[in-house]
Design goal:
Elements lengths: L2 H18 L2 H5 L3 H29 L12 H15 L1 E2 L5 E2 L1 H12 L4 H13 L2 H8 L3 H16 L2 H10 L7 H13 L1 H34 L3 H37 L1
Antiparallel strand pairs: 1-2
Helix pairs in contact: 1-12, 3-4, 3-5, 3-8, 3-9, 3-12, 4-11, 5-11, 6-7, 8-9, 8-12, 9-11, 9-12, 10-11
Length: 263
């Protein structure tokens, strides 16, 4: 591990711990609570795929005629991650992207999938995030999260895209949350099994193999450029702050739901 990678890890540790120990996890006690959480989280799952494809677009040649672009080592790293994220397998061995798998988990749990489907449908036609937000009634915290991701995507700075992809998304699922989902799955296996599989698969593929590939990709792109490393550290911190705000939004919605039930 390079000195620069370790420096970033040290500088973001407090933010990582705030995410890992966020109160939203302990607030999830019922399937209904999990449904609310998923309706926020799905936006992070979707824009994860968007930044992944931005990296592939910028680090490889996706045009015709084809020409070699950049480092073959970096091309290999991003292409291998894309294969795993865009065409993984579900519990039955069928090919599926992690985003589509998440939508299946939402459907099984009874969470509202219509909002995300409306968002995707509108964005496909309009190409405007704000228009899609309005149609889908996207929570404000999710809007801010996605907006920051697309600010980085639109910057065309591949070192920043790689940085938030590497440090802003991977390895942020706490064991406590896994235990909560495990308990819910035991009580309601017909509602939670796909989500449980998604989390387990995320940890197995994203949190282990892909995280190492992403670290190497970030090192390759920043190399000895101190300005790049400084920019990357700043972007990662902002990304983690947006994640905390996303979790705050989910927590507040869960609390409002519980208050409404009590009334």
């Amino acid at each position: 591990m390079s000195v620069q990678i370790q420096k970033i890890k040290d500088s973001i540790e407090l933010l990582r711990q705030e995410i890992i120990h966020h109160k939203v996890y302990a607030s999830i006690k019922t399937i209904e609570d999990l449904q609310v959480f998923m309706q926020f989280h799905v936006y992070a799952v979707w824009d994860f795929m968007s930044i992944l494809k931005a990296l592939q677009r910028n680090l490889t040649c996706v045009e015709v005629p084809w020409f070699p672009v950049g480092s073959a080592d970096t091309r290999f790293l991003i292409n291998e991650i894309v294969v795993g994220e865009e065409s993984d397998v579900d519990a039955e061995g069928n090919r599926i992207s992690h985003f589509e798998l998440y939508l299946q988990a939402m459907t099984q749990s009874g969470a509202d999938v219509d909002s995300m489907n409306d968002f995707i449908k509108t964005l496909r036609v309009s190409r405007h995030l704000k228009t899609a937000y309005a149609v889908a009634n996207t929570p404000l915290a999710a809007q801010k999260f996605v907006d920051f991701t697309f600010d980085v995507i639109n910057s065309d700075k591949t070192h920043l895209q790689a940085a938030i992809f590497t440090f802003g998304r991977e390895d942020l699922i706490p064991n406590m949350f896994l235990s909560i989902v495990e308990d819910l799955n035991k009580a309601f296996p017909d509602n939670i099994s796909i989500f449980k599989y998604y989390l387990e698969r995320h940890i197995e593929v994203d949190g282990e193999h892909h995280s190492q590939l992403a670290l190497q990709m970030t090192e390759n792109l920043c190399q000895g450029n101190e300005a790049y490393w400084s920019e990357a550290e700043k972007a990662i911190k902002t990304c983690l702050e947006r994640r905390i705000e996303l979790w705050n939004g989910a927590y507040e919605m869960i609390q409002k739901k519980e208050v409404a039930v009590c009334v």
